[in-house]
Structure formats: C-alpha cells, structure tokens
Design brief:
With 231 residues, this protein is an alpha/beta fold. It has a single domain (4-224), classed as 3-Layer(aba) Sandwich (Rossmann fold), CATH 3.40.50.720. Helices cover 41% and strands 17% of the residues. It is built from six helices and nine strands, in the order βαβαβαβαβαβββαβ. The protein has a seven-stranded parallel beta sheet, sandwiched between helices. A two-stranded parallel sheet has the order 7-8. α1 links the parallel β1 and β2. It starts with a strand and ends in a 7-residue tail after the last strand. The mean pLDDT is 94.
C-alpha cells in the first residue's frame, strides 16, 4: 500500500520540505499553490517524479480545494493525509497596519484549512487518515497588535474542535506550531528576523514523524521553537 498526501502551499518552505521527505519515504504527494511557475520549478528540481502531482490553485477557494482533492483521488486512488500549510502574514499591526492586506491573510490562514478539511474528510474516513494543520507559536503567545497571530489562534482552536468531531471516524488531527523558521514567509518583512531560526526541514521532520505513528496513536499538538526564541 502506497500512502498519499495532499499539501497546500507545497511549492516552497515547510510544504515543499514535507513533500520532499514524504516522497523519499515512498509516499505519493500532491502539492497545491497559487504560483504555477513555482510549482513547475519545484517538480523540475525533484526530477518530475511520478509520485508528485502539482495542482495550481487558491487554498481559500473551495472550488480549487475540491478540484485538488478530486484530482489526487483520480490520480492515486486514495488519500491518507492532508496538510493545511498555505499561509501568509502581513507583518503589521491592528492599530497601525494597512487593512487592505488583511482579508487575504484571514481567508488564507483560517478559511483555507477549514475548506481543506471539508473537501477531504470523506476520503480520510475511508483510509483512517490524518489532518495536519500548520499553525504557529503565535497561536499560543499574544504579541501586541498581531492580527496574524489571531489567525493562528484560530487554527489552534480549529485543530482541537476538528479533532473532537473526526476522532469518532478514526481520523487523526495534528497541529504543528513552529517558532521562527527560515522560509519565504519573511519575504515581505524586509529580511529575516534576528537570532537563530529553524529550517523548513526541521519542521518537516516533526510533521512527517506525526504521520508515521502507529495505528491508534493520535499526536495532537507539536510546538517547535529554535533555541533562543523566548516567546
């Protein structure tokens, strides 16, 4: 049996690192993203493997998410895990920021994972699969004016209230909450923040570990910070 995962925002950062690791373990992997060129470059970098399916689409549009689930099932015949990894930050504050970027951030970070759960749950029931939500330590620690953090608090809640519903169906739920990670998330920030940062592969290690648990084991929350990050 070859297991299959669908990863949103899988063309770079944590999503791409998780896809690489799962492919190396023999999984079949479908990745989505809004950047068609980025997805094509990712596939080319890996040598266009037969076990990789790239699907351009917006994680916050239900039709796109449904299409990704349908194409994954048509191509590979099963779905064992979904990873809601697509996310973004505006790097501003509620009291002083630019509201024009907030709707896209909220829709991507909060609505997107909910849409992925809704679109994939029937397939995951069949395989007793797993939902992985990529949150943040910002979903546990308050910082001044941080609307991005509020979206991640929503994901912390979504993970637990989803678990309480789907556990009766044999489906597991894992929240991965990274601290500071060196990814394209910081591209609009003006540079990487100071101090030690984790790599995308280090977060992917925990993500893949959660998918490798024995039947009947449900690892629910994994918080991973770099040494030196106090908050």
């Amino acid at each position: 049996m070859t297991r299959t995962a669908l990863i949103t925002g899988g063309g770079s950062g944590i999503g791409a690192a998780a896809a690489r690791q799962l492919l190396a373990k023999g999984w079949q992997v479908a990745v989505t993203g809004r950047g068609e060129d980025r997805l094509a470059a990712f596939a080319k970098e890996l040598g266009d493997p037969e076990g990789l399916l790239t699907l351009p689409g917006n994680a916050a549009e239900y039709a796109d998410v449904q299409h990704a689930v349908t194409k994954t099932l048509e191509t590979y015949g099963r779905l064992d895990a979904v990873v809601a990894n697509a996310g973004m930050g505006t790097h501003d504050t509620v009291a002083e920021g630019d509201p024009s970027g907030w709707p896209e951030m909220i829709l991507t970070n909060v609505l997107g994972p909910a849409l992925l759960i809704r679109a994939s749950i029937d397939a995951l029931k069949e395989t007793k699969g797993r939902i992985v939500l990529v949150g943040s330590v910002a979903g546990f620690v308050q910082t001044p004016g941080n609307l991005y953090g509020a979206t991640k608090w929503a994901i912390t809640a979504l993970a637990e209230n989803t678990r309480r519903q789907v556990t009766d169906w044999g489906v597991g739920v894992t929240l991965i909450a990274p601290g500071r990670v060196e990814t394209p998330f910081w591209d609009n920030y003006g540079g990487l923040p100071p101090g030690h940062l984790l790599t995308a592969d280090q977060i992917a290690d925990s993500l893949v570990w959660s998918l490798d648990q024995p039947d009947g084991v449900d690892v629910n929350t994994i918080v991973v910070r770099p040494i030196g990050q106090p908050n």
